[in-house]
Amino acid sequence: MTDIAVGEAAGPSLVHGDADDLIRDYAPLADVHDELMGADGKVRPHWRPLLSALAAFDADTLRNRFGFADRHLRDSGVVHRVYDTEGGSERPLPLGHIPLIVAPEDWQRIAAAAVQRATLLNLVLRDIYGEQKLIRERLLPAAAVAGNPEFLRALVGTRPRGGDHLKFFAMDIGRGPDGTWWVLSDRTQAPSGAGYLLENRIALARALPELYRSLNVERLAEFFGEFRRALYDLSTTSARRVGLLTPGNFNETYFEHAYLARYLGFLLVQGEDLVVRDGTLHVRTITGLQEIDVILRRLDSTFADPLELDPSSHIGVPGLVQAARDGAVAIINALGSGVVEAPAMMGYLPALCQKLLGEDLELPHVATWWCGDASARDEVMDDLESMAVGPAFAPHPSPPFGSGFEAFGDLSPERRDQVRAAIAARGADFCVQEAVTLSTTPIWHGGRLAPRPFVLRVYATKTDEGWTVMPGGFCRISETLDARAVTLQRGAKVADVCVPANAPVEDVSLLSPEVQLETLRQGDMLPAITAENLFWLGRYIERAEGCTRLVRALASRLIDYDAHEDGVIVELGDLLLDIEARPRPASEETAASETGTAEDQVEVPIAGEDGQTGFEAEAHSPALEAPVQIDGAFAMAALTDAMAVGSVASLAASARRAGSAIRERLSPDAWRMLDDFAELANEKPALHAGEAEAEQRCNRLLTLLAAFSGLAHNNMMRSAGWRFMQLGARIERAYGTAQAVRHLGAIKRTPGAFEALLGVLDSQITFGMRYANAPMRSQVIDLVVLDQLNPRSLAFQAGRIEEHVGFLGSIRGPAGPTESEKLSIALFARLKTVDNADTDNAFLGEVIVTLESLASAIARDFFSAYRRQSETWGFGPR
Amino acid sequence: MQYDLRHRVTYSYETAVPESRQMVRMSPVARDGQRVIASALTIEPEPQERIDGTDFFGNAWVRAVINEPHDELMVETRARVDVSRGAAPALQESPPRAALPELTLNANDLTSASPVHYVFPTAMVPILPEITRYAGAAFAPETPVGDGAFAVAQRIRDEFRYDPEATDVATPVGASFEARAGVCQDFAQIMLAGLRGLNVPCRYVSGYLRTNPPPGQPRLEGADATHAWVDVWCGPEMGWVGFDPTNALVVLDDHIVLAIGRSYADVAPIAGVIRLFGGQSHDVAVDVIPVDEPAAVQAPT
Q1: Residues of B (206-245) whose Cβ lies below 8 Å from A
Q2: Contacts of A277 in chain B (CB under 8 A)
Q3: A211-225 confidence digits (pLDDT tens)
Q4: Which residues lie closer than 8 Å to A142 by C-beta, 6 or more apart?
Q5: What's CA A339's distance to the chain center, in Å?
Q6: Is the pLDDT assigned to residue A702 strictly greater than 90?
Q7: Cβ of B226 and A878 within 8 Å?
Q8: Across the interface, do B120 and A156 touch by the CB < 8 Å criterion?
Q9: ipTM above 0.85, yes or no
Q10: Interfacial A residues in 392-431 facing B (CB < 8 Å)
Q11: pTM for the whole thing?
Q12: CA A339 to each of CA A344, A605, B297: distance values in angstroms, whole numbers, following the listed order
């Protein structure tokens, strides 16, 4: 099935008998261009290799392969999401499994047009923010610029570092019935989709390697390599750092940002990670402020700086505009670049192209009339029936329109009147566009090919040698057969875009030596907020594991019930109440917090919305009225009841939240484990599920946790980030061990308590190998508290904590020991020198207090000094 | 008329603020009919970084960063300004409102003097149909812009209640319009929203208004206030004319301009970011003293 000839080697002989089957029912729409099939009903030559390759698979294989690609995308988390305009909710765009094949000769034209438009818009931007000659010469109305919220007055007179406003450009194109490609819109603000298309390509190429080999498709990696080099070349500091500025993990394209940062080796930063000091931009890291001077901006310009742009923005960087003005930072694309992507600009581009480049536009764009121009408005007002109407400065809305265009003919009579009146009253807020029809491309639908309308996004980047175009793109496909462009503003599916190469393509990987060097340079840059999230991820995971082990110990004792062990069951139940896995009855509330949390407030950046700030939950779960019944239902609820802040379900959700904020630092496998763990922990139990189900659930949860920890242990770089995650886990385990020993290791022993303690601390096998007798307190204490070789013991945790804190202290420079170092040294020393006989509950209480102080000290030493949480924004008094 | 201005804003913080970043627009600059004889801006504590500049609208700003813990921040401007705008323009000679869209939208000027910046909605001054209708009821399309703008200012003065408790610095224009109450900032923004809805270019002006102490009594120190009003573009010949909707006045020599912009957001005297751990309070003291007037006395506390 592999030896299928390539590219131009056309001819009916290559079409497998089955290939005809594939297109037997394929029926292009009337008066619409179809990419696959010509008007004569024949498959176009550049599609034949694909059809032949597809025909080589039987239906089951194909279904499996497509399923594989879907799973790959879902597991990677890189799923393109759009806001559903109707429901207002987010929905993912699934992968359309058939790539769009663009003929090389078509592609040449498209690529030339992309270079031309990027060049043109770059020059227009330079003029708007510079001399404004085009405006004085009436090639561009001043109001078509001034009315655009993306025209940033604070940037007028500023020339971006390197001279270019645009470094990354995209345009959406479609093909009309006569076969001509049309430009539908330009993207200059912060073009999205590049991460998705990359992942789509990887998913499909892995699922159908034979197909991709036979298509001899142009690779994408080289383009991304050039893009990265162009950005690194803008850096003038010795550190050579590039940051990708994201609005944050609540943004619908955050996963793409994390993915691209990882792929390109850029540092993923949010506004609060950055600070302008002494005219220079810095990242707040665990080792203090580190310079950074190139920013790939995925944040809309207006949000970039509350001091000089939108004052309500909490996701920007105060002072960034001044840093850009001073040339201290190169921002890609430059602040204010979004102004030229407005529909209001479009009608003026042909004349601007003539003026600035002395040539016609390579590709026409959709005819667009800005109604601020009285003569343009008069031209189209009587013709609206066949037109689309929308905001002049889209995506900024102009009531009665939202952010997009609508087909006037589709509007209700009342709305038509409303729109006419709005245009008559304030024409400058609106544009009218010719309604265009798109071409169709095949998707895989119900086991066969079916045509669907699509829009293609083409990308270009500017390097030292000029603009270069990505040989591929982002294709959004409609779910319906309505081929009008206006109905496909968001799309319903996405597809890979393939440009067949004329010569065999070479393998290019981004993992070239030069690239690795750059990646390593980023290795020592750990933003403080990222460190804090890693720390909390470690804590939540470990806390969840400890809780799960307690539940399992309880469940197994309920299953093999022995009345002698009633005391142990009560102690285990009490432990679970202590850690708030279940709410404690109101009557016992006051007695609950005996350890006392004298610690300072430790805030959690992402993970902390539930109020879990330290060892004991701050916001207590609602108290129960009735006395607690320690039974199977209790055990199950300790796992699954997300209402209790200390339940495994809650902890898993918190771990997942902390993990999602540092998504780019976790491997896809680790992320999947975390995801699966959170899902299983939150899965609703069957009605009347008891101890047996609880035990089973515990076993499955512990398997997933072991897989996650194994991945973290084996695959994570031993960088500062790993240290913070470990530190969180060690502190949490030390705390859990101390608590367990307090409850189950008391001198006045409860029958079976020591066995339970060894079980909860996973140390019964070691104990069995060492001692033949029934456990005695001194032996148990030696193993779970003092033995530095037992990875579950308190002393072992203290040793690791000292090591990690020492390492982290050392990378901060020679300023003397940090507070956290002093505390960790003292803790380890105390555990190394205490006598077995002195390890009573008072001693354990002392250890717990030290751990709490240590967690606070770590927060102070590494996180809180750089936190922006407490900032107050806004205007002064009036 | 010459004035000695003093405008002081003092913030007091419950706990020390470790870092503060402020954008200060409190220095008057020379404009049509206004000359600055002397001006000085003081910030205490002394900022570690201080940059002076001029924004798009020609307003002077100072960007200050204070990196040392401080529990009080004081910004004070002292200036002597000469204002002489001459007689009120003949408003009835301004072009009719209906002629303005064409004059504005055909402009081939994108500098801040151009009217094109001042007809579009902004975040703080959106165009709302109810306010457009309210302004339109007092302002027919064939009415000269100057007369119509005065009529709108007068309608606002007559029908709105002056009430500092009704709104705050961030109250949206729709809310103060519905309440029919507010202060000078609200009235100015309502007038802006209404006129812009009618395609009349107009801009937000912050500044000061001369007040006269009761007859026979001396002026109290620090008892004046900042003020806000509206500049309306009355066609290319007449240019910008000030209208004060709080007092239903055409702006003459009693008004001193501090800053202009599209809305309050462009001219806020102080806007900034601080790291704050406790509460804060502030105090504003303004003096607008005609130069030939006897010295003021301390206000009783």
Answers
A1: 226
A2: 65, 67
A3: 888 888 888 989 999
A4: A135, B107, B108, B109, B110, B114, B116
A5: 27
A6: yes
A7: yes
A8: no
A9: yes
A10: 425-429
A11: 0.83
A12: 10, 34, 54
